[in-house]
Design a protein that fits this description.
single chain
């Protein structure tokens, strides 16, 4: 059984930093692409970033480019999202997702419907 478990969310002041973790189990890490999405109340789910489990290729949405960094540790089957210079508008529930395709050229990695497995989400709240 594939499981994705996020951790690291919480309350952070604007301008601060936070690191989210996503521990994956029940899958072969290299066969997947892992992504971070978020969803704020009343807003659509938004993809922030993704990383190929095999070659480490990454993608960033314009809204987080230069502030957030995605990385992975294959030995720990874990994907991270380092969030720096957070803004009030970063407040949302953050989800980790996995798609059974490690080739970013092989599917539309920006489409949440392409992802096969999801974590339960972790709340990030940015205060002023």
């Amino acid at each position: 059984e594939v499981q994705l478990v996020e951790s690291g969310g919480g309350l952070v002041q604007a301008g601060g930093s936070l690191r989210l973790s996503c521990a994956a189990s029940g899958l072969t890490f290299d066969d997947y692409t892992f992504a971070w999405f978020r969803q704020a109340p009343g807003k659509e789910r938004e993809e922030l970033s993704c990383i190929s489990g095999s070659d480490g290729r990454t993608y960033y949405a314009d809204s987080v480019k230069g502030r957030f960094t995605i990385s992975s540790d294959k030995a720990k089957n874990t994907v991270y999202l380092q969030m720096n210079i957070v803004k009030l508008e970063d407040t949302a529930v953050y989800y980790c997702a996995a798609a059974q395709d490690d080739d970013l050229d092989g599917f539309d990695y920006r489409d949440w419907q392409e992802y096969d497995y999801w974590g339960q989400g972790t709340q990030v709240t940015v205060s002023s």
